[in-house]
Amino acid sequence: MTARYWWGDIDENGACTPAPADEGAALARLASLETPMDGYLPGTWEAAVDCGAVPDRAAYLARLHALGMRLAADRVADALRGPDLELLQMVRTLDELDSVINLLTERAVEWYAIQDPKFTRKFRAMPARRLVQVLAPRARGPLRGVLSQIEGLGVARSELAREVTRVAARVLPNSSELVGGLVAARVMAAAGSLDALARLPGSGLQVLGARTALFSHIRTGTPPPKHGLIFQHRRVHNAPLAVRGRVARVLAARLAIAARIDRYRGELDPAFIEAANARIDGVLA
Amino acid sequence: MIWRDGSLLSPGEGGVYGERMRGGHRVWDPRRSKFAALAYLDREFDLAPGTRVLYLGAANGTTVSHVADYAEVVYAVEFAPRPMQDLLAVARRRKNIVPVLADAGRPAQYAHLLEPVDLLFQDVAQPNQAAIAVRNRPFLAPEGRLALMLKVRSIDQSRPLDEVGDEAVAALEAGGYAVDSVRPLLPYHRDHLAILGHRVG
After folding, report:
1. What is the ipTM of this complex?
2. What is the secondary structure of A228-257 as a DSSP string?
């Protein structure tokens, strides 16, 4: 059997063929090279010299270093190329922004309540975001700056949410169409990548994001979770309690198919969406 | 290895990750590097100039950069693309590092890049760490040394250290290694066992 090394091949008679001297050609050869390990013996630099691939040890290392760098850099670029990777970072940043904004708002309101002893949130239905806007001009000292920064974060958050929806419509066209861009992107982020999502069974996808409930079910036999992240989709959280689990299951199954279409075809399939929606709405009817 | 005032140093260009310098040498912190911790705990453990090293689990290249200060060549295997970006930056300025983006559990992916090495250093967070060391045994020269930093909690969350360690040792001995010593990396790293051995046969 031919032994194949980065610097060349040695066939069973001991005859040696050096690898192409041209770096591009050598890289192309290496990119597809797999070396079965049974009966494998590592190649030595002396053999590479005998083969005529390199003149000496220094050249052996220099050439190997250059090839290794290029090969690894190409593989890193390959691995980081998918458009789903940036979407993943965007979703995680969005969720992080949400929690940061909530934390800071809570803290700032507590602080404001000290500055203004008459302050209360009772009897005025005011969303936190609006509250921050109202308090900012009334606050004293550095609190004012903090409140206006929270406002700024809120603006960045809305912009990011819009962008997530936009990118999801491109990267996850069918999933987005089925459950909306934000939920589709969150589900993808929870799976880790579009590849991972496309390999998930519907049953796994159904409980993505319900880890605590799922493992408490497996360990201690509590009722299994009906839904994880897909609860955020309106057809799940608006469904009557009696059919919510069924809706979640059917939706998750369709979403798993949608993710596969997204991964392997990458374009919107209106016929599929229509059939899937009919099936999901059929449960609700 | 170079010791000065009780600190381990390595000769080389500094500023890789903000490490301190002393007398023109880089301070090698045992709290950041399992390799250094092992050297602190076992003064016999040496990295002679000219050593050829296969380093599994190279990560960001922090420890790899120190190893490369001593070794003739370091084959640095790392599976994850993100840390590999950092490792490439390190390897760009240290020509004796050969970066390999591959799965240490699948040596077929990189066997053609290697040559016989004197030291196999392994620091990977996998449940089958002993099996990975066994699979990479063909790269060791006869009598070549193994330094396996066993991450016990990657194998089992709750069982005692020595129990998990004993199993790993048994797996290594069944796989063609002789184990010379096993020691915890305390006080520098918790839940780690340094298993030193060498290839037999």
Report:
1. 0.92
2. SGGGGSHHHHTS-HHHHHHHHHHHHHHHHH
